Amino acid sequence: MNVYSDSSHTALKYLKDTEAYIHNLLIMTGDFNIQDSLWDLSFSYYSSISNDLLIIADSFDLELSFPTNLVLTRYSNNINDSNSVIDLMFFHSGSSKLNNHFIHPDWQLISDHASLTITIPIIEESINTTKHLIIKDSKKEVSFIKEVTISVRNLKTSNLLDIISLDRAVNEFTSTVNNTWEKNSKIINIMKQKLTLNIIHPS
Fold first, then answer.
1. 41 and 86 belong to one structural domain
2. Same domain for 147 and 120?
């Protein structure tokens, strides 16, 4: 879940007041606009708003993540404003598959916020999953449609006098379609993959 909470903490107030119930949440991240010594070593004070954020995170069974590189996340263009850490990540409590996130100050581009990234690994194992596939606009697709169309035209409906005869006709048609599909389709393998999720918070 990506959250942007303005300087008035509107999003946090909404999440707190509505008592939103979101189940199976893996990550919450965003610009929370809260300076606090808990996550910013350059800031000397504690914010009472932080309590609300931590309570909301706990209600989603999330814990605060600390980055592997302790650098700032917001770089002000105004010389009167100090740089700070206001972009945070929270991970599902007790998850052994999520490591600390990383902050990329060099990925700012035109934004005044650094990018935060986390890699979510997918279990590396042999996935022996296959499926039949007909490529769109291929000759096999044309052949499949043609044969099924012929089967529909050849359906004998004049003698459907009871449930037994109807079931027989439906089963015969289903069998024809299945055989036609297998004849014209090819088998593909579902391959394993690794997913990397990049979270970016522009200004």
1. yes
2. no
Please report, for the domain that includes residue 62, its CATH number.
3.60.10.10
Does 99 lie in the same domain as 25?
yes
Asked whether 12 and 52 are in contact (CB, 8 A), the reply is yes
Q: In what order do the strands lie in the sheet with 115-120?
A: 102-104, 115-120, 195-199
Handedness of CA 103, 203, 79, 81 (dihedral sign): negative
CA distances from 140 to 52, 120, 150, 180, 181 (A): 59, 38, 15, 10, 9
Tokens of 46: 């504690």
| Rounded distance between C-alpha atoms, residue 42 and residue 48, angstroms | 18
One domain for residues 103 and 139:
no
Residues 79 and 32 in one domain: yes
Q: Indicate yes or no: pTM above 0.70.
A: no
The string of pLDDT tens digits covering residues 119-177 is: 877 666 655 677 888 888 899 999 999 999 998 888 888 888 888 888 888 898 999 99
Q: Give the DSSP letter of residue 105.
A: G
Distances (CA, A) of 20 to 2, 64, 123, 130: 15, 19, 31, 40
C-alpha closest to that of 27 among 107, 117, 109, 115: 117
Same-domain pairing of 72 and 102:
yes
What number of helices (H) and strands (E) belong to the chain?
4, 9
Q: Torsions phi, psi of 58, nearest 5?
A: -65, -35
Paired residues of 84 in beta bridges: 74
